[in-house]
Amino acid sequence: MIGIGLAFVVLLFGANTTYGLYCQLAALFLLLGAAAHSVLIRKTPILNPPPTALFWLLAVIMPIQSVLVGIFRGTFYQVWYGFAFMLAIWVSRILSRNIGISRIISIYLVATAVMAILCLAFETPDLVAALTMTETDTGLARFSPFENHPNLIGHIFGMSGSLAAVQFWLRKGRTEKLALSVLALVCLVFVIAASSRGGLVSGLFSAGLPLIFLAKAKIGWVRVQRFLLIGGSATITAGLVWSLQGDNWLYFLNMLQLESEGRRGLDSGLTGRMEMWPIVLDKIYHDGGAIFWGFGFRSWDKFVENGDIDNSFVELAHDSGYPIAILLFAGFIVALKKAFAQKGASVDSYLIICVGLFSLLEGVVARYILAIGNPASLVTLFVFCSFSIERLSSKPRSLHANLTNQEVRSSDVK
């Protein structure tokens, strides 16, 4: 399990221009070692249970297509990335099956705590500069530790914060709850400091919906509605009172640059993204063959001029073509729907819903839904692979029974 945690932490440095590629390779080999170790211990066939069509699409069709397109176009980075992506998918399946998605997410949250400590230890001046809205030559300072893009920081810590909030409800120990609440708060501060609106909104929604379901299972829908009404009214009232004190409201407006007259304000077309997407889609259409098989993995930086795509679904169409993008999106929606149907029978389903919702929502304004170079996207791969392993219970048990059994297993381990 140490290998999985180290892989998550190492990927925090995956965007570094000097040694980022080596960090990504090191993380991949750490996961490969953990997978090999789990296979030797469990001695379970790799294809048991049989993979779903979604898994075959991710693990075989997409990477092989990218490799062939890369060879044809002479872009050999796509060839390397295609094989690396295939290996990451198979490793994710093995670990999801042998260890379980709940345990993997717990490891990820521990790794997030280590990443947060590293950020605080080495990047505190940048964090303070971002939180105090320091102006730089390129505009407002945004928290971007270890050369990570601010949106990537919002992606990593936005997902971590939402998972920490859901785990806070699932866990029973006071020490665990305290640690998870502190972690969720730190993640929220990092996301705000990065001025990542997509990470903030996606994190709040992907944590809020599972928490509502959990509360409904424990105290009933009537009490949940009453709590939402009273709690929501109290929160809005407190927020209004707080915002009227000095420049508190202006702080968040400026921190998130909601009133910016540049390319980050509310009238900026999602920071220029809505201008870029039609250009990319038109480019795919006029290329001819690209509409069917795309340009290969991570080809946007070589074929898209004047900026990033910053939309996971448009990027899927650009990299793999329309047929695979549509099939993958449909398969993800169907799998997420099954997770919703299973939420009364499995504790893991709430974590899967959290990751799935975050990936879908943030995918509208970010390109990280399918990637192997950062820790949060790696968790998404684990969830994708868990869709091919999790099975609906024929007789769903109550959430209380599942939580009780989880506590018993935890006590046995101790």
Q: Could you characterize what this model shows?
A:
- The structure is a single chain.
- The chain is mostly helical.
- It has one domain.
- Helices cover 71% and strands 1% of the residues.
- It is built from 19 helices and two strands.
- Strands 1-2 form a two-stranded antiparallel sheet.
- β1 and β2 form a beta hairpin.
- The longest helix has 24 residues.
- The C terminus is likely disordered.
In brief:
With 414 residues, the chain is an all-alpha fold.
List keywords for this structure.
414 residues, mainly alpha, two-stranded antiparallel sheet, 19 helices, 1% strand
Give the mean pLDDT. Answer: 82
Secondary structure tally, helices: 19
Number of domains: 1
| Low-confidence segments | 390-414
What's the Cα radius of gyration?
22 Å
Task: List the helices and strands in order.
Answer: HHHHHHEEHHHHHHHHHHHHH
Structural class by secondary-structure content: mainly alpha
Give the overall silhouette.
globular
Count of extended strands: 2
Distance between the termini: 16 Å
Estimated share of beta-strand residues: under 5%
Main beta-sheet strand count, sense and barrel state: 2 strands, antiparallel
Q: State the helicity in percent bands.
A: over 70%
Q: Strand order, biggest sheet?
A: 1-2
